[in-house]
Amino acid sequence: MSRGLNKVMLIGHLGRDPEMRYTPSGRPVTTFTIATTRTWNTSNGERHTETEWFNVVTWGNLAEICKQYLSKGQQVYVEGRLQTRRWEDSEGNKHTSVEIVANEMMILGERREPLSNNHFTESLQETHSTDEEIEEDEYPF
Amino acid sequence: MSRGLNKVMLIGHLGRDPEMRYTPSGRPVTTFTIATTRTWNTSNGERHTETEWFNVVTWGNLAEICKQYLSKGQQVYVEGRLQTRRWEDSEGNKHTSVEIVANEMMILGERREPLSNNHFTESLQETHSTDEEIEEDEYPF
Amino acid sequence: MSRGLNKVMLIGHLGRDPEMRYTPSGRPVTTFTIATTRTWNTSNGERHTETEWFNVVTWGNLAEICKQYLSKGQQVYVEGRLQTRRWEDSEGNKHTSVEIVANEMMILGERREPLSNNHFTESLQETHSTDEEIEEDEYPF
Amino acid sequence: MSRGLNKVMLIGHLGRDPEMRYTPSGRPVTTFTIATTRTWNTSNGERHTETEWFNVVTWGNLAEICKQYLSKGQQVYVEGRLQTRRWEDSEGNKHTSVEIVANEMMILGERREPLSNNHFTESLQETHSTDEEIEEDEYPF
DNA sequence: TTTT
DNA sequence: TTTT
Where are the residues of the annotated region Disordered (chains A, B, C, D) (predicted)? Predict the structure, then answer.
């Protein structure tokens, strides 16, 4: 039973094809970006448009599904929590990254062909063999 | 009619009393921080706790309500959109800030005494006289 | 400042073209239905699918936009509150209806042509002349 | 990967203590009601208040947690999906019931004492022995 | 039937 | 920096 709510819901389009990697222990991680466009009218009647970009991260099964079904330009619904990570690079510079750790994803609009990926599926089988549970923050990217 | 969804919903506790300021044109802006605590169990049975901090910004009427009714430690529900702002300081360093621009707020738990603020209310009247509509990004903070 | 949250978010397809009517005072009301499909796997590996139907109601400007842009089969995102109305028909039978009173709507998927409706737009102008604010529950339908 | 969104989020107070029962196969189900109060101002400056009542259903682990920690009057956050069930009673009358099938629950406000329930815990152990997975709609209530 |  |  949690004591806090941290929920983000997005609808937007993928900025690029998703990328899948693996943690040292073999857990799949898929990342992609979503552009969300907001339009509004100012008091003097002008129309404004602003695009906000989000970094989305998915883990485990959902990571594989995202890699397999999503591609650049597609419209998706994504739900998850907001996470800020801070780290230092090798030169000691501090960085902050804000990500949506998604636990739900829905493809919107017309159905596209699932990516043809016999190859993909095979490689999944191999890598997936070590699927022990790991900490999410174990993975540096 | 919008074409994108960018929604954030938080429940957490205020890290400090809210601060209210005004844009050059007299529009009130209130900022505060919210801590959201997440707890989960790892596969080896350990219990983890992680606190995420959020910067919340409110405008106009809601800014005044937040200033008037919220105080450090209080539990609130906040709903809004996620906004990333990038700017350079006077020395040319680049900064990024991520904020929740809230359009709804609910006080949770027991009712606290509204802050005694005859003084506050008066000053509101004065400042509020110039209430023309301005762009949100007009305000640097 | 509200003290309760009652929020519904749906993504689904319209079951029929929306219908627009007017309250006695001239306020537009548009109603339509949305089908939301849920799929899940049972423990014995069977795949289940269930479709839930929702009655959606919109008022004012949004009612006009829904009438103008939505049509049967379209995929939409809808956000609003859940409302239960109880009433008796002329024969004394009691009825209950559950509706989503939507305050946000987004068209998903590919953009369709806006319905050609010079006629529609004209009639809107006429009817719209009496646009005083009325109680939502004033309208029996 | 789902193709529809059906999400309800509520904050309100419990109208009565939750009730826990078991399906024939031993799966716990807990039901309770939540009151959500909405206040708004009409155009002529009057203040209105309306309370909406929701039937909430929880299953499995969450059912046990709700039974154990919730009691009448408590403020909670509840998240789930909207479900309409139709059935006929023994006299052939048709009924419709609308429920929130919750999958998340958060207690809001001050912490109350967990209900003292050594007895409760014991009885849980016994009944829980048959914890096979069953269909949700298997349970008539 | 709850709460403020 | 909050809360439990």
Answer: 116-141
Tens digits of per-residue pLDDT, A36-48? Answer: 999 988 888 899 9
Tell me how far apart the alpha carbons of residues B13 and B99 are, in angstroms, rounded to a whole number: 16
* Structural domains in chain A, sorted by start: 8-107 (2.40.50.140)
Helices (H), chain A: 60-69, 118-127
SS (H, E, C) D89-117: CCCCCEEEEEEEEEEEEEECCCCCCCCCC
Partners of B81 in beta bridges: B101
Is residue B14 within 8 A of residue B36, CB to CB? The reply is no
Burial category of A28 from C-beta neighbours within 10 Å (exposed 0-12, middle 13-18, buried 19 and up): buried
> Is D109's CB within 8 Å of B106's CB?
no
What Å value separates CA D110 and C1' F4?
9
- Tokens standing for residue B118: 């005859």
Q: Name which of B2, B5, B105 is nearest C1 (Cβ-Cβ).
A: B105
Q: Give B93 CA → F1 C1' in Å.
A: 25
Q: How many CB atoms lie within 10 A of CB A121?
A: 10
Residues 6+ apart with CB under 8 A from C117: C68
CB contact under 8 A, B105 and C3: no
Q: For the segment A42-79, what is each residue's pLDDT rounded down to a tens digit?
A: 888 899 999 999 999 999 999 999 999 999 999 999 99
Contacts of D98 in chain C (CB under 8 A): 84, 98
Distance CA B105, CA B97 (A): 21
Helix A60-69 with A118-127: angle, nearest 10 deg = 160
Cα gap A38→A52, rounded to integer Å = 8
CA of B111 to C1' of F2 (A): 17
What's the whole-model pTM score? 0.83
Q: Do D1 and A106 touch (CB under 8 A)?
A: yes
CA angle centred on B33, ends B99 and A10, rounded to 5°: 35
Q: Is the CB of B123 under 7 A from strand F?
A: no
Which nucleotide does the CA of B74 lie closest to, via C1'?
F2
Encoding tokens for residue A9?
A: 């819901």
pLDDT digits (tens, 9 = 90+) for C121-134: 444 444 433 333 43
Residue of chain D minimizing CA distance to A103 = D1
Chain B CB contacts of A97 below 8 Å: none
CA distances from D101 to A58, C89, D8, D78 (A): 26, 30, 9, 9
Closest nucleotide relative to residue B16's CA, C1' based: F1
